[in-house]
Design brief:
Among the domains are: 46-109, Type Iii Antifreeze Protein Isoform Hplc 12, CATH 3.90.1210; 114-257, no CATH class. The longest helix has 25 residues, at 2-26. The strands form three sheets. Strands 3, 4, 5, 6, 7 and 8 form a six-stranded antiparallel beta sheet that branches. A two-stranded antiparallel ribbon has the order 1-2. Strands 9-10 form a two-stranded antiparallel sheet. Helix 4 runs parallel beside helix 5. The protein is an alpha+beta fold. The chain is built from seven helices and ten strands. It starts with a helix and ends with a strand. It holds the Pfam family RcpC. It comes from Comamonas antarctica.
Length: 339
């Protein structure tokens, strides 16, 4: 009997536990389940302005606003341009396809951009004695004289010195140029202070030795196309002298006062037209002989009028009056007497 009661109590306790468990499982949650945190809003990708070609651009073309456009890209283009204003007026060195970004390497740089229209950059050999004691610097203006000693086999000329080029701009002198000017004394001193090791100082000294004016072997001058052949002939058969001049001195010779030098090649008959002169490129193509450069062109005398006009314009000398005569007959003799 007691055993039966014990089993009944255990079953009752088990049923109670099961009921409590079922009630707990079926009970609605008192607090809503915590929701997952909302994802942070994704920031829009940063856009970069990139200058590209609006159309195909040929090499050697000066850039204008119509050649360029700005597009936005998710990443910046290394060594590209973001503002078209930095490209206006620049000249392309290579062909650029449409919609292609522009880079500094595709644009022309160097001394060619320092020339004016109609000029050429010409190098001449220099020495200290003929180049103002190596006091010439890039950007200076010089007068170029040439001297002939009269012993040339090309032409028999008197010893002479003449002004060949006036106010020619120096683009480069030795390793220094208008784009890479030589360092000033203060800059050299600062560089020496930055060089701590002896080896670095020696290397710097060796590198800078070639850029010192006293080591210059050539000078590059801006020369008009008409004067290039005169300069090359004068350097080949004579001696050049560079005379340094003040930049404010603007005096120039007047070539119209002197006879023009004849060209080595003569134009065909009827060309150029009467009253028309050869252009600078045509004269350069026609060339120049050294004997004409040395002796100069003969002075042109004023044109003589035609012979008929000379005869009409010449004053006439009045004829002397004819003497009056009379014939006197004496017998068989006839005598003419003037009175």
């Amino acid at each position: 009997m007691n055993l039966t009661k014990i089993l009944a109590g255990l079953l009752l306790a088990l049923a109670l536990l099961l009921a409590i468990g079922a009630w707990m499982l079926g009970r609605p949650s008192s607090a809503p389940a915590s929701t997952a945190p909302a994802a942070a809003p994704v920031a829009p990708a940063q856009q970069h302005d990139v200058v590209v070609a609006a159309k195909a651009i040929a090499a050697g073309q000066r850039l204008v606003a119509e050649d360029l456009k700005v597009v936005r890209m998710p990443a910046a283009v290394p060594h590209g341009f973001g503002n078209p204003a930095a490209l206006l007026g620049r000249t392309t060195g290579t062909h650029i396809h449409a919609d292609a970004p522009l880079f500094e390497q595709q644009l022309l740089n160097g001394l060619a951009l320092q020339l004016e229209s109609g000029q050429r950059a010409v190098s001449v050999a220099v020495k200290e004695a003929m180049a103002a004691g190596h006091h010439v610097r890039p950007g200076d203006f010089v007068d170029v004289f040439f001297t002939l000693d009269g012993k040339s086999d090309q032409a028999q000329v008197d010893t002479q010195t003449r002004l060949l080029l006036a106010r020619s701009r120096v683009l480069a002198y030795g390793a220094a140029s208008v784009e890479n000017p030589p360092p000033t004394a203060a800059q050299r001193q600062e560089q020496e202070q930055q060089d701590n090791s002896t080896g670095v100082r020696r290397a710097s000294a060796r590198e800078n030795a070639g850029g010192r004016p006293d080591n210059a072997n050539t000078a590059v001058l801006a020369v008009a196309l008409d004067d290039v052949q005169r300069l090359t002939l004068a350097e080949r058969y004579g001696q050049l002298t560079l005379a340094l001049r003040h930049p404010d001195d603007l005096s120039m010779p007047d070539p119209a006062l002197f006879a023009a030098l004849p060209t080595a090649l003569q134009p065909v008959a009827g060309r150029p037209a009467k009253g028309q002169e050869l252009g600078a490129s045509d004269r350069a193509y026609a060339g120049l002989r050294f004997k004409d450069l040395a002796a100069g062109a003969p002075a042109k005398s004023p044109p003589r009028p035609p012979a008929a006009l000379q005869a009409a314009a010449a004053p006439r000398t009045p004829a002397p009056p004819r003497p009056q005569t009379v014939e006197v007959y004496q017998g068989g003799t006839v005598q003419t007497v003037a009175y």
